[in-house]
Design a protein that fits this description.
Blueprint (H helix, E strand, L loop, with lengths): L2 E4 L3 E4 L3 E6 L12 H9 L7 E8 L4 E8 L5 E6 H6 L2
Antiparallel strand pairs: 1-2, 3-4, 4-5, 5-6
């Protein structure tokens, strides 16, 4: 069992969370987006080895947040609400 830190509820069992995707994958704006751009948005991922920022949802409280974790060691560096994450550089 791994504990994930919900910024709203504190540490909880990983089974209470659902992965929402990599942070920074912004949806293309506009109606006339080339098919290649849509395909990149929907299917192409960086899949980094090591430190990464991801979007997660705590299913129990329904809140979305950004979490920093290492994909190799599974160590979680921290988590912040999406509002706070948008303010960080």
């Amino acid at each position: 069992m791994q504990l994930f830190p919900c910024p709203f509820c504190g540490p909880r069992d990983e089974a209470e969370f659902h992965y929402g995707g990599e942070a920074g994958n912004l949806r293309p704006d506009g109606r006339e987006v080339p098919a290649g751009r849509w395909a990149d948005y929907l299917h192409m991922r960086a899949n980094p080895k090591g430190a990464t920022r991801e979007i997660w949802v705590h299913v129990t409280c329904g809140e979305f947040f950004a979490m920093e974790r290492d994909t190799v060691t599974h160590k979680v560096a921290g988590s912040v609400s999406l509002g706070e994450a948008e303010q960080q550089p």
